[in-house]
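Throughout our pipeline, every protein is held as a single compact record rather than as scattered files. This encoding replaces a full spatial description with a residue-level series of whole-number codes. The remainder of this section carries one protein's record, kept here as part of the documentation.
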Amino acid sequence: MLHIVNRSPFERNSLETCLRMVQPGSSILLIEDGVIAATRGTPFADRLAEFHDRVPVYALGPDLDARGLRDRAAAGIRIVDYGGFVDLVTENHTVQSWL
């Protein structure tokens, strides 16, 4: 399952809800303001690091760029472009968007 989080973790608890539900074999994709969670030095990046050995965590590069955060992406976050986004959707049988 691909879990997509598009809200800032400072604004909503979507990321925490997602992390409670994610299972091994799933993937997490951060898009729009959700990419803020991928920023090193935040408690959210530390929380995501706990999952790196179980599920891959991706961030949409153009959304990082739009927010000036690409150079602040935390270690272990896999940055993808729009083509990578499409690949993730097609590789996973189910997609869950956390709003």
Notes: The chain has a mean pLDDT of 96.
